[in-house]
């Protein structure tokens, strides 16, 4: 089996894959089909047209991995502090390492 690096997730990928539900098929080349209504302007008239969007399983996998990674991200205690007015700042006296 040959493994390759997955591309980084983009906001466009997240929006596209949010409509796909269910289990993964196990085939990275598998394509899910989703029908969307898009407005098309032709002169003075506006039409709604059905467009079939194809989403690869690899793209869905990248999106899901990114969502899981963001959901379980943690920071060490003391690395950030919250001011009384609401914003959160990096603690300059923190001696650990922060990686993003």
TrEMBL record:
Please give the GO cellular component terms listed in this UniProt entry: axoneme; kinocilium
In which compartments does the protein localize? Cell projection, Kinocilium; Cytoplasm, Cytoskeleton, Flagellum axoneme
Major localization class: other
One BP annotation, GO: motile cilium assembly
Tell me the InterPro entries matching this sequence.
RSP9
- Report which superkingdom the organism of origin falls in: Eukaryota
Annotated keywords: Cell projection, Cilium, Cilium biogenesis/degradation, Cytoplasm, Cytoskeleton, Flagellum
Does the record's keyword annotation contain Cytoplasm? yes
In terms of PANTHER family, this protein maps to:
MITOCHONDRIAL RIBOSOMAL PROTEIN S18 (PTHR22069), RADIAL SPOKE HEAD PROTEIN 9 HOMOLOG (PTHR22069:SF0)
**What family is this?**
Belongs to the flagellar radial spoke RSP9 family.
Quote the protein name from its UniProt record. Radial spoke head protein 9 homolog
């Amino acid at each position: 089996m040959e493994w390759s690096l997955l591309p980084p997730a983009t906001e466009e990928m997240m929006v596209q894959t949010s409509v796909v539900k269910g289990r993964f098929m196990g085939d990275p080349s598998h394509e899910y089909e989703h029908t969307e209504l898009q407005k098309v302007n032709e002169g003075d008239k506006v039409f709604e047209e059905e467009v079939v969007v194809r989403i690869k399983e690899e793209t869905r996998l990248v999106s899901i991995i990114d969502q899981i990674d963001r959901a379980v991200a943690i920071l060490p205690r003391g690395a950030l502090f919250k001011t009384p007015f609401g914003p959160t700042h990096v603690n300059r006296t923190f001696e650990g390492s922060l990686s993003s």
